[in-house]
Amino acid sequence: MSIIGFAATFFDLLQNANSAVMATFVGPEEIRTNPNLMLWVLPLAASIAVVYKATKLTTVKASNFVKEAAILFGSIVVFTIIAAFVLHVLAWLITE
Amino acid sequence: MARISKTSRLPFILIVGLLAWLVPGAGHFVLKEKTRSIIIFVTIAVTFCVGIYIGSIGVIDPVGATPWYVAQIMNSPMVAALGYLTANGSYPVYGWPNEIGQIYTSTAGLLNLLCIVNAAYLAYMRGTETTGG
Description:
- The complex is a heterodimer.
- By secondary structure, chain A is mainly alpha-helical.
- Chain A contains three helices and no strands.
- By secondary structure, chain B is mostly helical.
- The radius of gyration of chain B is 17 Å and the shape is elongated.
């Protein structure tokens, strides 16, 4: 295979890969209504904890940063569960 | 020690804030906070990309979801380019993908707003420290 042929094949592959990546961002994913839907809160809570601690800690050292972010992540998740439970009880009291 | 007036410090603070808006983490990078800037850039970029992966670029809707768009544009002015693409309704998205995508992209934007304010505050404090104030 000539260099030009190799380059053409390489660019074709690159274009196909690029199209595949772009396709994932122009069409929505299929998400069904089920209890697993609540798991989407976890990555969001993690990113909030990481960015907040990145701005608040005076010195960013790996061990300290991970510990602080993990504590904040845990707090967000626990309070979300408590809020969900309280709302569930309220909804139950109102509808029963 | 030489005193730097508030007015001479203002352009630097504005540039830091503007850079932090242009590219998440760039404000901290300019202030030589490289670790922070990398953490901020990666986290905000990943959160935003997850949002548009779930709901597609259709979740950026300057016409039908203006309040969400205000939060989304805090990620970077480049979001406006995506908003221009989606403004004519070419990328419709409904239901959970729309809601989860909007929540992710808007939260990423609001987190970047926090980083913009933090970078501007750090720039202000650096100025105060160099003047011995």
